[in-house]
């Protein structure tokens, strides 16, 4: 998985896009009279409002999924954005704020430059991840100590959750994943425990009464090494063709998981 340390690469691309929009807009404005400062402020405000609008519209479009976990609405790291809504909000705000004092052309060109970098960077990252990370050929073990190759799940969409019993976010998201496993028979869910013994995993499963299927042991964290995952929990979404479709670092909410599953099938 392509990342910058513990940070998802897509978040880094978004921050760079913000910077490009701000610097480009300011560079197109002559110095003096505070015009560059005002132009930069309009660009930043437009980008922040775009994020807010993109989030709110996404939540409204998936309201039933969010109602069961209202706090997930403000969990921005969980993902979930309506891109077209963000673009419309940014454009509308920029047009409104540049109707008088602040020059319109530099603001719009700055926003366009940032959006172009984000789009190109995002598509390139997606293509690179999909080409470079196939379904791992690692052979794990089931809870009875028998070999369990991940390639046995090829041919269907597969969700691989990397987790550990000591990981708080892993434990919190487990009921959401358990419910999804029962509800989506067309998708194989694999729970690859990282570095723990069968006894530790069985004790956790029994105490939580989760009823999970396909709980496997990855004693050497081989899946993390092969996919480049940097933190737990990490959830990998593979298509039926065995290619990586999406990655989620951190705790999953029901809303985000359901969105990912709809896109996967």
Automatic annotation (TrEMBL):
Keywords, alphabetical: Cytochrome c-type biogenesis, Disulfide bond, Membrane, Redox-active center, Transmembrane, Transmembrane helix
Q: Which positions fall inside the Thioredoxin domain? A: 129-265
What Gene3D superfamilies does the record tag this protein with? Glutaredoxin (3.40.30.10)
- Is-annotated flag, keyword Zinc-finger? no
A Pfam family recorded for this sequence: LGT
Q: Where in the cell is it found?
A: Cell envelope
* Transmembrane region(s): 6-29, 41-61, 81-96, 108-128
Kindly indicate whether the keyword Protease belongs to this entry. no
Q: In its UniProt entry, what is this protein called? A: TlpA disulfide reductase family protein
Taxonomic source organism: Stenotrophomonas capsici
